[in-house]
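Is magnesium ion placement plausible here? Inputs below.
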Amino acid sequence: MIRKLLVANRGEIAVRVIRAARELGIQTVGVFSEADRDALFVRYADQSVCIGPPPLSDSYLFYQNILAAAQSTGADAIHPGYGFLAENASFAEACRALDLTFIGPAPQAIRKMGDKATAKRLMKEAGVPTVPGSEGVLGSLAEARTLAAEIGYPVVIKATAGGGGRGMRIVGDGGELENAFHAAVNEAQQAFGDSGVYLEKFIQDPKHIEIQVLGDKHGQVVHLFERDCSIQRRYQKLLEEAPSPVLTEATRAAMGEIAVTAARSVRYDSAGTIEFIYDGRSRQFFFIEMNTRIQVEHPVTEMITGVDLLQWQIRVAAGERLPLRQEEIVRRGHAIECRINAEDPQKGFLPQTGTLSQYIVPGGPGVRVDSGVYPGYAIPPFYDSLLAKLVVWGETRKDAVLRLQRALDEFIIEGVATTIPFHQRIVRHPEFHRGAYTTDFIRRITAEEVANAC
Ligand code: ADP
Ligand code: ADP
Ligand code: MG
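Reply from A.M.:
I modeled the complex. Tokens:
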């Protein structure tokens, strides 16, 4: 039984967690930095505690203060949201040591999957198809050279501790390898405090398709189908949909089964996501990483399955059994999510700050908005640019696309540039309508536009 839950995050995901907890009859505690005093989640939480100055290392990542806040408020559980401390095994252990329920998987699973090179090696051993590449972290440039020549260019060098679309370098041919290798090692050290890098084949024109999994502490693991997250800018997702418009039922079933195998192999006991690269030509899919947390785009899965992933993540952490067997999880219709970021697409998606002089959210049938802001809210300059997620549901993909166009047109934000106009272009693009778009889509349509303007 959880009675009081501390939410160790901010923005829309803090609001989402508070909503789930309240609907389960659980009290909530918000923690906020000095820059977030006026945030929506602070108003929604039953009580809130200031945990320090704006920089992440002094507040949302400073876990001694967060644990102290949990103890002083009498919280018995902590939800880390996504980002921040969500995939920090030491934090999960520190919670346990204080008898606080960490809403996430067991620390050993976080540790195994958190190091991306190790995760790939473990998954290969478990029989999960992985992208051809190095077994673990690269030992030297010479090793990278031999391996790249063997698997063929292009290849990608990734930071083993990377995440959030950062710490990747694509290498087109052997001439670029030496510089790319040294730059990747330096960047990894700077950005993640871990210089380990690994190498894999760079798949041309793939889709990013991921499977939602859910496990409990009694050894049950199920999947809740896929999300197609191929609309990305700079390897970061911008729009996600489920089901994927291109998967055959056979591939869908195979991916789901493999994802469950992957999760079981680390005794996974929470909500998590297995990410794959999907090659539409060969219909092959390859594991790239697992995110051991709730994901930004989880509402898309909630809309097609009717399962409240946040509530189930909390309930399984408290020891409850999963309510549904695999065959009882059914999907219906189609859902699409747009990330509404305070970013200027005209300026290379540069994050923007400012005050929301106007903020009118869409509504009506089949429309859900998960948001962390309100009219008059001033966006602090310290954190990520996600303001809201617009999610729509429709009986068919065509219905969902038309509903999304309607809802995007209703969404009015003034005072700061957002990704809304860019999403309006995407949802009207013939290639998006066809559904076979790949991770290169945004780069190509942006280039098209530049070419047309010349
Ligand atoms: P999702 O994987 O849920 O689709 P993102 O990849 O956008 O979401 O990541 C969610 C948030 O977590 C973002 O704010 C991102 O910057 C952050 N994040 C994810 N992994 C890391 C990491 N290893 N280090 C730092 N930030 C990360
Ligand atoms: P992160 O931890 O930052 O989420 P991922 O390993 O999940 O990093 O990769 C982020 C994105 O980069 C993927 O969604 C995909 O678009 C692209 N990507 C990653 N690996 C490959 C690959 N081997 N070939 C082609 N694209 C890739
Ligand atoms: Mg990823």
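Short version: The longest strand covers residues 221-233.
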